[in-house]
Amino acid sequence: MPSFRQATIREVLAERDGFVRVALDDGARAFALTQLTGPVGAGDEVIVNTTAVDLGLGSGGWHIVHWNLTRGAWSEPGPGHLMKLRYTSLQVDTGAGEEDHPVPPTLTGCPVVVAGVHSQVAAIAAAIGQLRPGTRTAYVMTDGAALPLAMSDLVVQLRAGDLLCGTVTAGHAFGGDLEALNVASALTLARHVLQAEVIIVAMGPGIAGTDSKLGFTGLEAAPALDAVAWLGGQPIACLRCSDGDPRPRHRGISHHSSTVLEAVRSEVHVAAPPEIEAGGGRHRWYPIDPGDVGAVLADADLTVTTMGRTPAEDPLFFRSAAAAGHLAVRLLASSGASS
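RESULT FIELD:
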């Protein structure tokens, strides 16, 4: 059950569109999603959800502002009639790209990299930017983890470095340049409205798993890859690999990626750095050495970790993600699918 308490905001620590970090009067920290709460500021009395911090979960020690008592009533008209977070007290009118942008149900050969971990997006996008500067790369964020796009520090960095041309939030994820009801629709909006030449699909921060074969949110990558194939795109599975994770199930090729490749019904492209032995089966494997990915990320002014590990501490994780970006550029060149 959730836990809530009342607190006073002592100061605003940082803010950007849709997202504010604050310090509370008792020394605790919280963030507010202002698309859901409206504005907050120093001196405001707020209700915060403390559940994740109380349980010691992966929220990074931050409470979440639920409501601003000082401001009271608040209303801001939405752009349409599509609700996200439906049937909760936080349901919000986001509108839908499908309402405003009728697009054809096809990807016209566009390469689409589907990743299972949010931090992989940085290495994929940086590799694409290094190999083919100016590529229109769009990010589709699923609702497998964090729902607000505004929470992603990584997306802020990628947009600042011109490594993303736009974002689409699918399902109950919200806050993208475009909103979509599902991943398939999000893909077509990215291709035709954002005019993406390459699309990256991944959940936001906060993958969850249960140490079981099927109990992990990254399994959503399998139907996403199938959607790409169905819509006439080129599906690329981004492997989750590691030489720094202490858990044996994630060393080498993670069991998450192995399970996704079992579950996907389509033939997909798979890039693997040379230190990973290519698999068999119906999928097409490509040995690709992406080079020093840590240097590529640094050159792009990107600071990114995975489970707290830097590229130097878990090079295989970032190399496998960058290899998928390399493959996307290769397939783009050979397909003539540029916008």
